[in-house]
Amino acid sequence: MTLFRNPRDRIPVLLFLIVFALDLTVYFTARSWWLPILWLALWVIPKGWICAWNHHHQHVPTFRHALPNRLLDVVFGFQTGVTSHAWFLHHVLGHHRNYLDQEKDEARWKRRDGTPMGEVEFSVINTLVAYPRAFRVGLAHPRVLPVFLGMGALQVALLGLLFWHDAYNALWVFLLPMAVSLYVTVWATYFHHVGLDATEHTAASYNIVHRGYNLMTGNLGYHTAHHARHGVHWSQLPELHAQLAHDIPASLYRQPGIPFVWSNPEAQLELAPEGVEALALRSPTART
Fold first, then answer.
1. Is the pTM of this model over 0.85?
2. How confident is the model at residue 1 (pLDDT cuts 50, 70, 90)?
3. How far is the C-alpha of 230 from the C-alpha of 218, rounded, in Å?
4. CA–CA dist 35, 41 (Å, integer)
5. Distance CA 265, CA 44 (A)
6. pLDDT surpassing 50 at residue 96
7. Where are the domains of the chain?
8. Comparing C-alpha atoms, which of 279, 121, 86 is closest to residue 194?
9. Strand pairing partners for 253?
């Protein structure tokens, strides 16, 4: 019996474990005040990409069994600031069910008066309320809430041990990167949906089809496809997007952010008809 649900997860998980091992190495060996700070700065963007993979893991668990999934949750928790089942409650059981209704959406981009929030406003507010909203969703899912609370307590206890051993290194290698990564996760969500009042999945998300961006984020740029069928494995999203390409408005595309694009990152794009057709041709049915 294989450990992984999908063999394509093997290399990503290996890379995440290597990153975690490097974090631990810096934590246990750094004696200079500047090295942990430099480490934080160097890994801000890569850990932002890891946030996307934690997101995929919460939708489709990486392993077939609970124990390795929970162990990976702990690793992801230290890398992304999102602990076990927090994203599952807030995002899968919350945002995905409610994102078409801005009065209910756990990641809502509208103010109470109906106007869109600014980028920083959205990111700060939704970062601060992420865990309370996850808990609130958990109250309606009593089978999930104990796992969320128990694993959260374990994560805090492990972080406490790290602070007890070396508070300075724990601050810069773990706690601050966790906070920054959580903020980056929320910030990225802003560009997925802001300004899109829609009743259909095909008109409610922006997409990024940049190859490098999707390589690093596990195809998170195919966001319409992800919302249309959020139980699909990340490796299948390009094909699903191809099937939907003709139904997605050509204006619902964006450039990727830094470091992929340095001029007008996250800018809205409108694909030419040939660009839409090229995406649609990726579908097996379009090639037969």
1. yes
2. low
3. 13
4. 10
5. 17
6. yes
7. 1-195, 200-288
8. 121
9. 207, 269
